[in-house]
Amino acid sequence: MKHKNTVIRSINLDGECICVDIFQRSDGSFGFDEFRRDPEDPDGWYNIGHYSQLAFDSGDQALASAEKSVAWLSDAL
Do 54 and 44 contact (CB within 8 A), yes or no? Predict the structure, then answer.
């Protein structure tokens, strides 16, 4: 059975081509990752942060770690 993450918050950089998603895993842990999309590419969003393996007890902890890890995020909040 495939595990699915549920996005609980998505924060976009101006222009909406880069975002950070805060998500909850099926095991109850939380995580985050950074994604990018190119408007001319029909394949949609792809991972550029490679932070999804990190696990946190809450969405707030995941967001705090994302703010420290993703340079532009604090300015976007």
Answer: no
Q: What is the tens place of the pLDDT at every residue in 5-53?
A: 999 999 999 888 999 999 999 999 999 999 999 888 888 888 898 999 9
Domain boundaries along the sequence of the chain: 6-76
The predicted model scores a pTM of 0.87
Provide the token pair at 14.
């101006």
Residues 7 and 23: beta-carbon distance below 8 Å = yes
Q: What are the angstrom distances between the C-alpha of 61 and each of 6, 31, 45? A: 16, 9, 24
User: Token pair for residue 37?
Assistant: 């999309």
> What residues contact residue 53 under an 8 Å CB cut-off, 6+ apart?
31
